[in-house]
Predict the 3D structure of the following.
Amino acid sequence: MLTTLLYFFIFPGLLFATVTGGILSWFDRKVTAMVQFRKGPPLLQPFYDFLKLLLVKETILPAKGSAITFVIMPVIALIGATLACVFTLMPALNLSSGFTGDIIVIFYLLNIPALAFIFGALASGNPLASIGASREIKLIISYELTFILIVAAIILKSNMSISLSEIINSQSEHSFIGSISGILLFIAALFCLQAKLGLVPFDLAEAETEINHGSFVEYSGSAYALVIATKYIMLFTLPVFLCMLLLGGLHFNGINILYAILKIAGIVLLLTLIRNTNPRLKIAQAMRFFFIWMNLMVIVAIALTYWGW
């Protein structure tokens, strides 16, 4: 029991994922500043932002809506993101999850934060938050179909294995991205990550200039600090999950630690560059992008996988 709590709260769970995600958030902001010819924030700025919200700023509950649901949803989002991180990192640490289909469990856990944010927005009673929640629902319907097709393609490439450890082991000689189908899956997965993280061009649910931070317009203080912590964890967990699926996994021993850091940083760099070189899409454009082009790309990748390419 104590070991399980340590996994969840310390390593590789809540504390480790939040700190690492905060560093990646700084990296994202620093690269953004370089692209825009600015200096950028100091290394500890993401942690200053989090602690200021958690310890200094007041938590204001909405006058309308359900205050209990509004407050609980960020907690649920944080738990879901942390569990997804723990299960994703277990194979890299030679730990067993105790069941076979952990890749399916991780897939569903990664959906919990977005769903919790939707319910929290709807519980706030704010019309702008409702618009943000509506956009997020449409976006989830779009990119989750693509994401589940990507997972299905990975299962096919690993001889129908639904165990993350076995998927990593099947890449012991050559990672999946070394094939044509793997490259197509990586491109589609990268855009799915962009949408899951709510980054431009898929930041429609927040869209500060349109709906004033949308889903999170009513959040403040410690409740919003939990939202920020969840975003930090997801910024770390999703690139790690992509590394496990397509880049041969992560190994934390010797020189492999440096390779693991470079893989994660490389994916975050790509996400940041996409975010800074594209305008925000309309919701209809985003849905069309995933329903038509990304799904078509993944279906082609599945066909190529079947033919051994």
Summary: Residues 2-306 form one domain. Residues 127-157 form the longest helix (31 residues).
